[in-house]
Write a structure and sequence with these properties.
paralog of FGE (formylglycine-generating enzyme); Rossmann fold; 795 residues; globular; seven-stranded mixed sheet; alpha+beta; Four Helix Bundle (Hemerythrin (Met), subunit A)
């Protein structure tokens, strides 16, 4: 169920019943797997570190269990640093992610869901939990506060669920025949790939959970005794908190030249470790000569930017970055703690569990907006062009990888990596370290791997030849959208695959992820891959022209959309016809008609039409331009826009919402249809119009429709309209519902869709062919025939 949307709504999750269980020290029953004192990875000093990444060609059953136990206990060790019930239910200050309770149960839920998909287990453990804890939040914008209205399960229910999942996963490890001694290599085609997928997914969230804890108030946190200690450099004395001196408190910027070279990107398909889909494929890049920082940018160097007014001057920021800075009222890095008046620029440093003296020679942990602004400031200060590296340039700084022994995380645990390899990776310690403490590469660069992730100039992008994996077809593809920046290199808390030389990760540019940066000096862009060009799939629905075209499609009269009487005017006003078809079907079925959800609402034509019959309508769309336009129409009732006739010629048209429609019934929200917020559930009607074949993972949306906490309530109605125009520009071929042939013959999308809906508790009410007309200009039109399904959820 959901509760009233207020900033403090999350407090209704607090029961007061678990304060003793969540106090310090944790009781023995806290641990649902092994205690840290019995866990693989235990060090002589009583702390726990991460084991090496398994070699899937020769790992033994006991090694697989040890790796699972190590990751599971590390997660619970981290969460044992949360004090009291509030720490589990209080959302982060920005409200952009779920509370910690979600991340306590999210990895276990994914284990069960993926093991079921692979056929390794045949039944759910808790279908409700495996729905609400399945999908995290990919924050769309920094000002989206419409989260955290969920009434979550109690802590004892969550704790019991973890216990059950631990036993179930351990049973799979103990009994699967293909983990016996001398087994064949475990490849992407093997069902056990899903088991290792669960391991690496948990380790991703070990790190992302630590970031969210980093953002919690310190009174809700305590450093667990077995958690790795801060890097020894944190115990130094004499680092002044004001006016740090280069050469004494931090090294000056030093650039090393990198000659022109050729780099080859992509993990070999037969490499014997688990990998995410985006790591595979291959790209050869010709790298032009450039100069790069020998070390990561330090807190001391970034302090100069802060003192110089870096957070006050818009000219150093991108337009979006400046909007973020103003909205958050940021004046210095998020994890710097000011001491004294702001103008004194005295700071201490917030680590994961404490505040310590500022470490001026540790890397500055910032987001992409801040890193880019620093580069612009440095360019102006020095009169030379600085920027972030490209993925190809980052690879040019690395040492050669020719075998497993060159991927250090496959051969050493965190402690050995830190002390023998001088790599701050894999939880060798519990914090960042000085930027010159690690062993440099053969080319002289420090921290190419480890310490903190490094922001790049590239958008997250697929390598040519990469394919989605059928067990997790929406892991990467929804983020190939021009809205996610690449990070490489891993951090001190990156473990397993994240710490591998093949790792490729990403986050939105306003997110924090134990990430810093190094600067590159060059008069070229390094070949950075950008997906925000006007013709990119991610930008198709953001242009002003597309907004104009969709306003005409959604609200234009038949005569405006098709001025020729001989034309197919019955194909006009498509959104309204879809909404009416759903409404009429709901009335005929006697279905409840209180709440409706319009997924892929665009500029809102169907949403407003649904408000004639439903008391509450929510329209969601990925396009910010569409949502802004729909909200303007809701607010004003009218909007003038341009209608193209020929070339640049055209005329102005005024869109008006019918005054008979109660616009206050309609609300709009930017959201990803492949990752809809958990709190959206139990609608009387759901409309999905002309959307499925534009999604990177249509099954992700279809999987949310039924089951526990499904989008459609039992007895509710569902209408889907699609022409099934599958294009790899929008949907990876492996995620298509049809339009191809397999070993059994042709696969048609409509057949796949009917089967999926029937299996999820939907009964087909009727089908139809729905024409759609899109005007491009006065003499060019797209005529499309969509296939329409109307279903009722019966269980």
């Amino acid at each position: 169920m959901t509760i009233e949307t207020t900033e403090e709504a999350w407090r209704q999750n607090l029961s007061g019943r678990f304060e003793s269980q969540l106090a310090l020290p944790r009781p023995t029953d806290w641990w649902t797997g092994l205690l840290p004192s019995r866990s693989p990875g235990l060090q002589p000093d009583g702390t726990l570190t991460s084991l090496p990444l398994p070699d899937l060609a020769r790992c033994t059953r006991s090694e697989v269990q040890a790796y699972f136990d190590n990751g599971w206990t590390l997660t619970e060790l981290l969460f044992s640093g949360l004090i009291g019930e509030e720490a589990f239910y209080r959302p982060p200050y920005h409200h952009l992610r779920h509370p910690m309770l979600f991340y306590y149960c999210h990895p276990p839920a994914l284990y069960i869901n993926k093991l079921r998909v692979a056929g390794l287990i045949d039944a759910p453990i808790n279908p409700y939990f495996e729905r609400i804890f399945e999908t995290g939040v990919d924050e769309m914008r920094w000002d989206d506060m419409s989260k955290n209205t969920m009434l979550w399960p109690s802590f004892d229910e969550a704790h019991a669920y973890r216990k059950t999942v631990y036993r179930r996963v351990s049973e799979v490890i103990a009994h699967h025949p293909d983990l016996a001694d001398g087994h064949a290599p475990i490849t992407q085609a093997h069902p056990l790939w899903a088991l290792f997928m669960g391991f690496e997914h948990e380790r991703i969230h070990l790190e992302t959970s630590s970031v969210l804890m980093h953002e919690l108030p310190l009174n809700l946190l305590h450093r667990p005794d077995a958690w790795p200690a801060l890097h020894p450099s944190a115990r130094r004395r004499g680092q002044a908190n004001t006016e740090p001196q280069p050469g004494r408190h931090y090294p000056e910027l030093e650039l090393l030249s990198v000659p022109a070279t050729t780099v080859h990107l992509g993990k070999p398909a037969d490499w014997p470790s688990y990998g995410w889909d985006n790591e595979y494929g291959s790209r050869t890049a010709e790298v032009q000569p450039f100069r790069a920082g020998k070390r990561l940018v330090t807190n001391g160097e970034f302090h100069r930017f802060v003192v110089a007014g870096g957070y006050r001057e818009a000219r150093w920021w991108s337009a979006t970055g400046w909007e973020w800075r103003k909205y958050r009222n940021i004046k210095w890095p998020a994890f710097w703690v000011p001491e004294g008046p702001a103008g004194y620029h005295q700071y201490r440093l917030r680590t994961l569990f404490e505040v310590i003296d500022m470490q001026w020679d540790w890397p500055a942990e910032v987001n992409w907006h801040e890193a880019s602004a620093y580069c612009a400031w440095l360019t102006e200060r020095d009169g030379k062009p600085y920027r972030l590296p490209s993925e190809a340039e980052h690879n040019a700084l690395r040492d050669v990888v020719s075998g497993v022994s060159d991927d250090a995380v496959m051969t050493a645990d965190g402690s050995r990596l830190l002390h023998e390899h001088q790599l701050n990776l894999n939880l060798g310690c519990g914090s960042s370290s000085p930027v010159d403490a690690g062993r440099p590469t053969a080319k002289g660069f420090h921290d190419v791997f480890g310490n903190v992730w490094q922001w790049l100039g590239d958008h997250f992008n697929p390598l040519p030849g990469a394919q989605v994996h059928p067990y997790y077809d929406d892991f990467s593809s929804p983020c190939y959208d021009g809205q996610h920046q690449m990070i490489l290199g891993g951090s001190w808390i990156s473990t397993g695959d994240e710490a591998s030389v093949w790792s490729r990760f990403h986050f939105r540019p306003h997110f924090f992820q134990h990430a810093g940066f190094r600067v590159v000096q060059a008069d070229h862009d390094g070949g950075a891959v950008r997906l925000d060009t006007e013709d990119a799939a991610s930008q198709v629905y953001e242009s002003a022209q597309m907004v104009d075209d969709y306003l005409l499609l959604h609200f234009g009269s038949a005569a405006e959309q098709m001025p020729f009487e001989s034309g197919p005017r019955d194909a006009c006003q498509f959104p309204q016809r879809c909404a009416r078809w759903l409404t009429e079907g709901a009335r005929a079925a006697g279905a409840p008609m209180e709440r409706a959800l319009d997924i892929g609402c665009a500029v809102g034509g169907a949403s407003f039409e649904l408000a004639r019959a439903y008391r509450e309508v929510l329209g969601v769309d990925l396009s910010r331009a569409f949502i802004d336009t729909a909200e303007t129409l809701k607010r004003n009732g009218t909007l003038e826009h341009f209608c193209r006739d020929e070339g640049e010629l055209g005329h102005r048209v005024t869109t008006r919402i019918d005054p008979a429609i109660a616009r206050e019934r309609v609300s709009f929200r930017q959201a990803d249809a492949c990752s809809l917020p958990t709190e959206l559930a139990d609608y009387d009607a759901v409309l999905i119009s002309n959307l499925l074949c534009r999604l990177p993972s249509p099954r992700s949306l279809l999987g949310r429709l039924g089951g526990p906490r499904g989008l459609v309530r039992v007895g509710g109605m569902l209408a889907i309209f699609s022409p099934y125009t599958w294009l790899e520009q929008f949907t990876p071929r492996g995620a298509w519902l049809g339009g191809y042939s397999d070993a059994k013959g042709p696969v048609h999308s409509a057949d796949t869709l009917r089967a999926m809906l029937a299996g999820d508790g939907f009964e087909l009410v009727k089908e139809a062919e729905f024409p759609l007309l899109i005007r491009e200009h006065a003499r060019k039109y797209q005529y499309i025939v969509t296939h329409a399904l109307l279903c009722r959820r019966v269980r």
